[in-house]
Specification:
With 244 residues, the chain is an alpha/beta fold. 35% of the residues lie in helices and 26% in strands. The protein is built from eight helices and ten strands.
């Protein structure tokens, strides 16, 4: 079932085309990666999908409804967690509800059940500086989820984490996605990360950026231990490098 559709989107700045006829789709429950080199227009595409930017051409559909240039329908998390240092984790997570006009006490009640599911039980009254990088990222992801509970756009969400923490967060995020029925479109420069996490990978390259290929990862998630050492993994990586 199609959750999100991007149809023939083109975008330019000061007469220079950044994206040209980009079409992608995200099915319900999928994790789809947008992989490409710097400058290929990945973040610009996310800004169009989220409604921050208006395309010169094309449309964005959510559940079949046109949401082009209409922000507020899709969650969007940037590379940095952007937690407010002067707010507790509880109030950081509740921020999307407060911005929608929900009263503070009601917002806190609404987010309270989610802390255990996101591995944050006991962190509600702490401040961002008191948490590890992995915990901060979980809090940021929970805040993103509270903004919109259907589709999340994640722009390099794990790039700031060390290797061991990143591996742990990968497994955790896949479990949470399945539990809360979340569909995810995410940007990464990390080919290994894309192969390990994705159901499908779109390759965005060129100037202006265009979709130059789509890779379907057939192995079930979560991937088997040491999948990144298998011949199947290396073949996916070889194919992606050739296409990029």
């Amino acid at each position: 079932m199609k959750k999100l559709e991007v149809r023939n989107v083109s975008k330019q700045f000061d007469g220079k085309h950044v994206l040209q006829d980009v079409s992608i789709e995200l099915n319900k429950g999928e994790l789809v990666c947008l992989l490409g080199v710097s400058g290929s227009g990945k973040t610009t595409l996310f800004n169009v999908i989220s409604g921050i930017l208006s395309p010169e051409k094309g449309e964005v559909l959510l559940d079949g409804k046109d949401i082009t240039n209409n922000p507020g329908h899709i969650s969007y998390m940037l590379q940095k967690d952007l937690l407010l240092p002067y707010r507790t984790i509880e109030d950081n997570v509740a921020l999307p509800l407060l911005l929608k006009g929900v009263k503070k006490k009601a917002a806190r009640r609404q987010v309270s059940p989610m802390f255990e599911q996101f591995g944050l039980e006991g962190a509600q009254k702490k401040y961002p500086a008191q948490l590890s990088g992995g915990m901060r990222q979980r809090a940021a992801l929970l805040r993103t989820y509270m903004f919109s509970q259907d589709v999340a756009l994640l722009d390099e969400p794990f790039s700031a984490l060390d290797t061991l923490t990143k591996s742990s967060i990968h497994k955790w995020y896949l479990n949470v996605m399945e539990d809360i029925k979340l569909s995810t479109l995410f940007i990464t420069h990390d080919i290994d990360e894309a192969i390990l996490l994705s159901d499908r990978i779109y390759l965005l390259s060129g100037s202006p950026g265009t979709i130059t290929g789509e890779i379907v990862i057939k192995e079930p998630k979560p991937r088997i231990k040491d999948f990144n050492l298998t011949n199947e993994f290396l073949e996916y990586k070889r194919k992606i490098l050739e296409m990029l």
